[in-house]
Amino acid sequence: MNKRPTLENRKFTSDSVEKKIAEVSEFIEDKKLAGLFENCFPNSLDTAINFSIENGEPDTFVITGDISAMWLRDSSAQVWPYLSLAPEDKKLKEMVRGVINRQTKCILLDPYANAFSNDQVRGEWSNDLTEMKNGLHERKWEIDSLCYPVRLAYAYWKTTEDSSCFSSDWQLAAKLIVKTFKEQQRKTDRGMYKFGRVTAWSTDTVPGNGYGNPVNPVGLIVSIFRPSDDATIFPFLVPSNYFAVVTLKMIAQIFTAIFNDNEFASECLAMASEIEKALKEYAVTGHLHFGNIFAYELDGFGNKLFMDDANIPSLLSLPYLDCCSLEDTVYQNTRKFVLSKFNPYFFKGKVAEGIGSPHTLINKIWTISIIMRAMTSADDEEIIQCLNYLTVSHAGTGFMHESFEKDEADDYTRNWFAWANSLFGELIVKLYNDNPALLKQKFNNYKAL
Hints:
CATH architecture of the largest domain: Alpha/alpha barrel
Number of strands: 15
Structural class: alpha+beta
Radius of gyration: 21 Å
Mean pLDDT: 96
Shape: globular
Strand content: 5-15%
Number of domains: 2
Largest sheet: 3 strands, antiparallel
Helix content: 40-55%
Order of helices and strands: HHHEEEHHEEHHEHHEEEEHEEEHHEEH
């Protein structure tokens, strides 16, 4: 089931990645699963990487797949599974550093944008009712768009012990991230950002004349859009605020160790503490059936939305992003909720079960939700069943999709969605390292968990 481009048509190659593919694939007992891994793990390298040297520095533009634009979130996640191999592979290491360099440029261009073009022309969303600039693909303000690049740079530094990614421009970008977070706490006014789009798709534009629904400024950060690129209902998006806490602590550590700037580090830690305190007060709330759980969104006035979306950061993904421990009681209660019929975007069908998104309406299960369920599980049977779902839901394409219809795998969205492929590869490598016995199973049947 090899669906990779021929060697001469691959965008980027890495000897260490090829070695890992061969090593893991040979170990996997189920050849369908092995074939998926062989296709998915290198998919971003094969198809999405545009690497060059600009002014003596690596520069890597990463398209998201079937959309020729670079999302800060997706590009970080797409190269994340290769980080562990970077110390032994100079070429791979330079490629990842190039992603960090390009993301730095993007943030400095506009910290409110979520997606960027690889040139200075205006893209398909140039007529959006916001401050569009040349070089922007889309300008949807999502907290996680500024968190993912910090996560990637921090992990690159810790994994490779190379601090060269922390340039003077990166320092400026990090300060701009914190400035943007503070603006969107909206303590004195609504800030400079607003967004509108002429569309019949309600989640693609923003209420409140582009500012979103009102919030009570309690210290949390407004995220006008979710990581699904859908507009929030209550603008304090809980999983993204937890991700911001982790991000601010990483920035503080970097500024202390690399820039010897304890004052700014203290500012970051104080903001992280403020957000953490507000989350404890407002985000944890009693549910009729599950006890204390995390709400998905809130507004600070007491209104809360109970759901989860497949896109990461999600409530399900909080331990994966180091926002809480897997054993946390509130998280475990929340996990039971989001994987139940009481989450309006949890779907169960003939093919699989999993979390979807308003982005793809009802009855569409997102592959990344199944992968994330396995990534955050300590239950071998649950992980095995998730692997079952993944092996029967790719519709014979050999790749992960954005979503598929719960009763019919051939009805799917996005044939080329590199983030899902990378996350699947990350899961398989994680199991190979931490729980290899699970890769000696056969995976071919649906069974409700």
